[in-house]
Structures are given as structure tokens and as C-alpha cells.
Amino acid sequence: MDLEETAVKARAFSYFRAARIDQALDAHARAGDEARFIAGGQSLVPALSLRLQAPRLLIDITHIDELRGIRRDGGYLRIGALTRHCEMLSEPLIAEFAPLLHAAAPFVAHPAIRNRGTLGGSVALADPASEFPAMTLALDAEIEIVGPSGRRRVKADDFFIDLFETALQPGELITAIYVPLFKADQRFAFDELARRRGDYALVGCGMLATFTGERIDDIRISFFSVGNTPIRVKGAEATLIGSSLDAERIAAAQGALEGDLAPPESDEVPPAMRLHLARVLLGRLLGRLGEGA
Amino acid sequence: MSAPLTSLDRPNSYIGRSVPRPNAKRLLAGRGRYISDLKLPRMLHAAFLRSPHAHAKIASIKADAARAYEGVHLVATGADLAKICTPWTGTLDHFKGMNSAPQWPLPLDRVVWAGQAVVAVVAESRAIAEDALELIDVDYEDLPVVVDIDGAREAGGALVNPGSANNICFRSQLDNGAVDDAFAHAAHVVEEEFSFGRHTAVTLEPRAIVADYDPAAGMLTVHHGTQTPYQFQDLYSRHYNIPEARVRVIATDIGGSFGMKLHVYHEDMAVVGLSILLGRPVKYVADRMESFVSDIHARDHRVRARMALDAKGEILAMDVEDLTAIGAFSTYPRTSVVEGNQVIRLIGAPYRFKNYRATLEVIFQHKVQTSQYRAVGHPIACAVTERLVDMAASKVGLDPFAIRAQNVIPDDAYPQTSPTGYRFEALSHQACLKRLHEIMDYDALRAEQVDLRKRGSYRGIGIATFVEITNPSPAFYGVGGARISSQDGAILSLTPSGEVRCLISVTEQGQGTEAIISQIVADQLGLAQEHVKVVTGDTEVTPHGGATWACRGAGIGGETALQATRALKRNILEIAALILQQQPSALDIVDGEVVDAATRKPRLPIAEIARIAYFRSDTLPPGTQAQLTVSHHFAPQGYPFAFTNGIQGCALEVDVETGLIKLLKHFIVEDCGRVINPMLVEEQLRGGIVQGLGAALFEECRYGDTGQLMNGSLADYLVPMPMEMPDIVIAHVETPTADTVLGAKGVGEAGTAAASACVLNAVNDALMPFDATINSIPITPAKVLKALKRF
Fold first, then answer.
1. Which of B43, B190, B410, B537 has a CB 3.0–4.6 Å from the CB of B281, allowing a cystine?
2. What is the pLDDT of residues B352-361, one digit of tens each?
3. What residues in B contact A200, CB-CB < 8 Å?
């Protein structure tokens, strides 16, 4: 790229394209805090242009084959970290075995961003307003991480710690997301409330439930855009387990949200409004779930 | 209505025809020539360090490290540029009593809004310039900040400009008829306080400028993404003391403007100075974040208004108070008080009542300046008037169409003078109302609304009548002392090959100015449109004129082209008559051929006339001097403005649990006089409506307590996007102005003028079953839910 161009405003950085994981990890270890991994770049590149981040080294991981691909692995669907958002829409394995991700994908930004943004990148950034990190919680997914001290799998429940803070340690990479295979006795629902299609949601929610007949045996409900991390609403979940979805149960679950969520102050959406919207959205999604969503 | 100029059936009848824009293909093919893309030899790049404070004293600027940074050519402060640039003041004489502090390209000792440019760095690349910015250390001392309207008006409160008596920029008052008496005897009074948030233009291409000073020739060339190259030629000449003939401003393709790109910006003025200091071309393109904190904003009004009616719903009087906050300076050279001035003068404009009182107070605050942006003041005047009319209708028990039909100035009652002093030549409110009722299928919409309410679905239907100001005469700016032309000029040549080249002062910003000018020239001369080449936007080439703003391109520029073409045609026919030994009056031109006027029989191609005149003048009778180039200027006379009118309607649905609004369909009936190109008129209307819908539901510059813009990025500042936009149905009524031969008025702002009012009325209509009303724009989910007491 021509550096005389007026549009290039990031601070100068070095670039390394890794072909294998060990190359990426080595490069990062040598550069330390001054390095960032880059894949789709849909959050990092704007941050560079705004000089909110100014790493000395960008390590491009998009050519590492091991981070690609979607396949069954035992009771899980292994989704490579480099899987792009648009593939969530187009890949039959996703639609069949992780339909909640398929349902969430159209709400992720706009096509141009979905063509480049990756699942691993989205989960690693852990934007509390993003759809996919929250869905890993609802899905009880596991995040496979590789780093200087080896390879490990972290449950989504243990992965999201605070605002943009996760279980990922410096120099570690996400290699894949493991999603338990969707089963015949399960139902899911997803929706979000946003002022414009593709925006960060005012409130968003996805859920996955296991039924016996109309009785809920298990349910995991995850909200996004309601706090510093994606949030599972365990109080609401507890009111639903063992019951069928009648109006009274739905109201009870909505009521429980007040204990589950404490939305932060914001200049545009007051906490009480966000809580109200979360209740409305939960009610609508549980209604759909009851209808067999 | 006057007789049509042409019949669409004859050859070359382009007026009234939807022909594509000749430049559309070029732009679609990526062949646009935008300033952002321009590269000149030896060109350098400017970047600006901006104030993080809304109000602070500049104690010191340490820039040695930046000056020493490799690739940096110049670091300039306010003091450096003040040595070569005279200051400017954004006041006009006809706004009696208004004041504003002098402005320099960069501040001398004090910053007055967060985001104000403080120091300029010029370097080999923009990236290097930005690296160097990080090395500059400015020591600020915080001063008290004035942010909101109430704080600015507090007696003894902080002052935007220390040393001034208060924060008031301008006050104005109108009082006609017997307002108090009308209210005292009214059967019904409706009253509301409205607020209108700040928003901004958000052009696809940000502001862009390349200044190129050649010290050897003493010549300044500025490639400037602007609507008004002549205005800037004059300003750069006077403020940098360069003879006008040695200043050239070139405005080529421009990625959106909407009024935002005709004001003086500090960075632009600075870039000219930087180029003079360096003797090299200097480029500056605002990035999106910079645009949000330095482009002019618009609106930011709080209006308290009441309306008196008799028992039958006849409007008797209005009483209005408009407070508007404009930032720390009044914008130069058009000021920041025009919007408020138009708000109080346009309120009530469609209706025939005569008792009207209004006060306007324009206030300084520590924010970026506001100024003219598409539909200046119109959306506010329209929303205030039309919401009160709806409130009155509901109180009196009339349908919104019925109360308007009862109160608008009848179509046969013109000319009329509004209580605010506007003179209307001829408007068509009744015809437009009737047509809107038809195209909306209003009764069916109402029936559906009743039906859906029973099922818990809340539809709203809103309409809004409007009047738009177009074709401004010198009464707009000239009388106030601004060197802003209200006339336009054209130079037309018949080329040796028999084509026509038209150099004209109106400019093209993507709306199709060049297309309609070529249509008018081709139509009036009798030539295929593809044989007319229109050139715009270069002060060295095109004659001086007002250019394109305030909906004047078609009405004034179009008339200029028409009269120039008729003059050229006379000259061509004179030569043809000599060659053919005929009277000129016996000849005409059709499709590039001189024909016998009576029989339409072809006699001679105009290319042959051009050939003879240019190359074989020896064959013409002695003493003949063919004049195949004509220049012509046209300044509007008669009415000071050509007012247009129309009405919009919309249907929408409010989700009463989430506060989200779904726009279902939008309608407009518009009367812009003679329609030159229906397709382009409709594009203007659709684009304008979408901008108005953005204002209605999405767009707002939100500030925190310390004067920081909270949402200065496109992730947080919401512009209207296709997924949220409804289908827009358009119909026309044509009432040409008799002030010109062409009869065209403006249309660029009509869509924006009433779209937000329409939505405001529709949302309130949807909320009718609840004890909830909305009086604030933009209408956000938070406001709707608050009104519904949902949280």
C-alpha cells in the first residue's frame, strides 16, 4: 500500500504472516506486549486507524490451516477459529448441528463485515454487545486455546471475565470453538432489539432448551448488550427448569431478570429501560420456544 | 398555470423528460474525480491537533519534537497563520444587533469547543503528520464550560466569550395582528414545547481541500470540495490579500454536500495559509471523527408554541418562542442565525390566519458551530406547526385532512402575504391535499388502523403540509453585506463541429445540475442532449455566480441557461438567415438542423453554419461578424423568493413494548413549479425524505456535561439505512413561477422539510389510545417508552 495515501493513518507496524501455529506463537513470544494477532481485522483495523491500539507487530494468522474447517468431533461440532461469520449462514453443518449460531449470524453487522470477521476473533475480543460470544454461553460451548504453555479447553461459562477481558492469556490464540451437537429434543430461539438492522443491539438474547414433551429439562439463556460481558441469566433459567412454558412461567422468568442483570449506566439507554427491554425480549423468545421455535 | 414551454412530442423536448444524468455512468464506473483522490506533484499533507477541552486557555504549545520529526515540513499555530490571514466575523448587517467573536484559522489563546483544531502539522504523508501530532504538548487551563441552552441563559453564569455581557448572539421579534386578543377569545388553545436535537450532514465524502500556492506566479489554486467556488475565491482573495484574478477555486466531483460544504471551516482556511507558507500543495481530508466535531451541525432548537382556534377549528393566531444554540461562533459568511430566522418566519406559513407573534433568541455555547444544512429551519417550523394543527384537530374533533383543508390558503387566493411577511406568488395546498388523500388511500389506512388496534398493533398515520423557500434573491444574503451572489452566469459556444459547450456558474453535487442544464440548452436550441457539454465548478473557466445552494440551481441556473441559449439561437439563426437569404424569423432549429419555421423542412445543419462562420467567414456578406459564443447573466427579480409547497404523509407502526418504530410507507405530493426532469426531481425528494426520516428517528449529536460529543462515530451516530427506509410514493402538482420563462422552482429541500413532522404526527397518532405524547426529535425508543411509562 502506498504510504503517501491520506487514508493510511495507523502508526507504522511490522507485519508477519504465520503459516503454522508455532510460528505465530514464537513471533508473539519474541515481540511480547507489542504484538497482536490479526485475522478478519473487523475490530482491530478500525482500532489501529483510530490509534486506539498501536502494536509494533501484527501477526497474520489467516493462513494457518489448522485454524480452519468445520467438522464433527465426538459429541461436538468443532468450528475452526477462522470460520467467517458468513459461513455461519452458508455451512450446512452449522445449520444442522449449531442452528443457534446460524440463527444469530444474520444479525451480526452487515455482509461486508460478515465476509471477513471470524468466529475466533469475535469470541477473543469478547465485545459484550456481540452475538457470537453470548451464543457460546447459551450453547455451553468450549473454547480451545493454544499458547506458550500448551493447549487447553475452557468452558464458555469460565471464559468471559470482564469488559474485553477473557481467560485468554497474552500470547494465546483461540484455535476452535467446540459446540455440543444439537439434538432432536432441543429447541432454540434468538432475537435482538436494535434501532437499525446490523447495529449493536439495545438488548439481545439467545437460548437453547432441552424438552421432554412440553417440559423443560434444561435451558441456557444468554443475553448480550446488557453488561460488561455476555451474561447467562441463571435466575430466569431456574424458574423455567422442570416447567412448561405457560404465561405464568414466562412472567416468573421475566421477573427473575432483575436479579440476573444489572445493566450499566449509559447516556442513551438508562439501566431501567434496558432491563425492561430484556424482559420484553425474554418474554417474546420464550413464547416462540413454547410454540416449538 | 402558464402555457407549457414545449410539447414533449416534438424533437429535442427535454424539459419535462426523465433523461439519465450524463455523469452518472462516469461516477458509477469509478471515474469520479474527487478532491480526496487528488494527488499533485510535491504535495504535502496536513493534520490537526484538536482540543480535548470544550473551553480552555492555551497556556503554551511545545512542538519542538514534532518540528524535528522526520518528514515534517511545518508545524503552525494560530499565531503563525494570523500573520498572513485576516480574521473573519460571522455577522450580517440585516440581522440587526447580532454579534460574534472574530475567528482565525487556528485559535490564538483560547479553545471554545472540544474538537477545535489547535495546531497544524504538514508532513510528507498524513501518517507522518499524525505521528508528529502525538509529539506536541499543549498546556491547557480549563475554563468554565457552557453546554446547554438553560445554562447559557443563566444570569451571572459562565460566558462563552469572557468579557461579553451575556451569551446572546441575536434576538428577533415578529408581531402582527392582534395575538393577545385572538387568544383571549379563542374557543380552543393548544400548546406544546418541542425540542429538536443537533444533527449533522454526514456526507459520504468528508470535507476535502488541496491548496496550491505558486509564489513565482503569485497564484493560489484551491481544489475544494465545495458547493460555492466563487464565494471561496472571494474569501481566499480577501483574507490572504491575493488579487481575486489570481485565486482559482476548482470544485470538481463532490461526495455529498447538503449545505455543509459552503461554510468557512478553520482547517480549510488554515490549509490555504499552510500552502502559502510552504509554497507547495497541501492536502487535508477530514476523517470521519474529525467531521463529527468540525463539520457544521444543524437544528438544536427548543420551541414553545401555542395556537388559538375558534369553535369550528379555524386557526386564529399563533404565538411562538424559539431558542436555539449555535456553538461558540456564528458561522462565516452566512451566519448561524438564518435557521432560527427561518423557523419563526416559516411557522404557520401554509395557513391563512393573520395574527402571529414570535421571538427568536440565538445563544452561544461551547460546541461546534451550527449553520445552514439542507432545509434550513424548515423541519422545525413544519413540525411545530403541523403538530399543533394535529393537536387542534383532535381537540376540535376534526380529521387531520379536514382541519388542513379548512385552514390552508385557498389555491385561488394568491398572491398572498404571510403574517411573517413572506410574499407567496402562487401555491397549491388544496390541490396537494386532495392528491395526497388519494395516493395514500387514506380512508383504507384509517380502517386498517382501527382493525389492527383491536389486535394490539399500533399503527400511526401522519400528514404534514409545508412551504419551502427556493430561488433566493439578494434579499437573502446580499442585502446583509455578504459577497454571495444571487445571480448566475453562463457562457455558451457553438463549437466548430456544431455542438454546444455551456460553462455555467451553478455547480454539481450529484443531484444532476449538469443534466438539467444540458436538457434546457438542448431543448431551447433544438439539439440532441448528447451534443451539449456542460462545464461547472472552476472559477477560472465558469462565470461568477451563486452556484448551488438554497434550491437555486434549477430555478436561477436553469433560467440563466435558458436565456443564454435563446441568445445563442438568435445569433445562429442570424447567420443562417444570411446564408439562406431568409429572415431569421422564418427559420428555426430542430435536432441540429436549421429548418423552415413554417414547414419544418430541413435547410442546413448548424454544423455547417459553424464551419462557415469559423473557417470560411470570407463567404459571408461583408461586415458580418458571427457571434457564436454568448455570455449571459440572470438575477432573479420580482418575488424575493420562489416559494414552493407540498404535503407529506406516512404510515408507521409503534411497538409499544420496545419503543421501536417501523416505517411502513411514505408519501409526498410536491409542487416545485416546472419539472425539468421528473426522475431527478423524484431522486431529490426521496433523498430529502430519507434525510428527514434520519432526523426523525435516528440522527442526534449527543453531548455530555463537559461539552464532549458522546457519539462522534458512525457506530454510535445513527444515519438512516436502507433496511429501515419505507417505500416512498411521489406525486406532482405543477405551478410554475411567472417570474421566469422556465417557471422552475427548487426541490432539493422539500423532502427534508416535512418528513420529520410527518413522523412526529404519525407516532403521536399511534399513541392516541395511550396517555402518551411525543414532542421531541429524534424520536428514540427511550422517549417512546418514557412517554408510555414503561420504565
1. B43
2. 999 999 999 9
3. 715
Distance of CA B72 to the CA centre of its chain: 38
In this prediction, residues B202-206 reach a mean pLDDT of: 95
Chain B residues near residue A7 by CB distance under 8 angstroms: 126, 285
In this structure, chain B runs to a length of 791
pLDDT digits (tens, 9 = 90+) for B435-477: 999 999 999 999 999 999 999 999 999 999 999 999 888 888 8
Strands (E) located in B257-396: 282-285, 297-309, 315-325, 355-363
- The continuous run of DSSP H or E covering B535 comes out as strand B532-536
Does a structural domain hold residue B6?
no
Provide the domain limits for residue B106.
35-143+202-294
Q: With b meaning 16 or more CB within 10 Å and e meaning fewer, what string describes B696-716?
A: bbbbbbebeeebbbebbeeee
In A, what residues contact B, Cβ < 8 A? Answer: 3-12, 50-51, 193, 195-200, 202, 267-270, 272-273, 275-277, 280
Q: Which residue shows C-alpha cell 485565486? A: B247
Interface predicted TM-score (ipTM) of this complex, two decimals: 0.95
Tell the residue number behind the cell numbers 463532490, with chain if given. B254
Question: What is the per-residue pLDDT for B252?
Answer: 85
Overall domain count for chain B: 3
Q: How many CB pairs under 8 A join A and B?
A: 78
By Cβ distance, the residue of A11, A269, A276 closest to B790 is A276
Say if the Cβ atoms of B710 and A11 lie within 8 Å: no
Cell for B580? 439562406
From B285, B657, B702, residue closest to A6, measured CB to CB: B285
Domain co-membership, B546 together with B397 = no
Are B469 and B447 members of one domain? yes
Residue B195: burial class (beta carbons within 10 Å; 0-12, 13-18, 19+): middle
Please tell me whether residues B467 and B547 are part of one structural domain: no
Q: How far is CA B670 from CA B26, B302, B376, B727, in A?
A: 30, 28, 18, 16
CB contact under 8 A, A12 and B657: no
Residues B433 and B534 in one domain: no
Burial class of residue B590, CB neighbours in 10 A (0-12, 13-18, 19+): middle
Of A196, A270, A273, the CB nearest to B721: A196
Sheet containing B208-214, strands listed edge to edge, beginning at the edge strand earlier in sequence: B72-76, B117-123, B44-50, B282-285, B208-214, B219-224, B247-250
Helix axes B442-454, B429-440, angle to 10 degrees: 50
Do residue A3 and residue B125 have CB atoms under 8 angstroms apart? yes
- The answer to the question of residue B159 being in a domain is no
- Give the C-alpha separation, B249 to B210, whole Å: 10
Q: How far is A213 from chain B (nearest CA, A)?
A: 30
| Three-state SS at B566 | helix
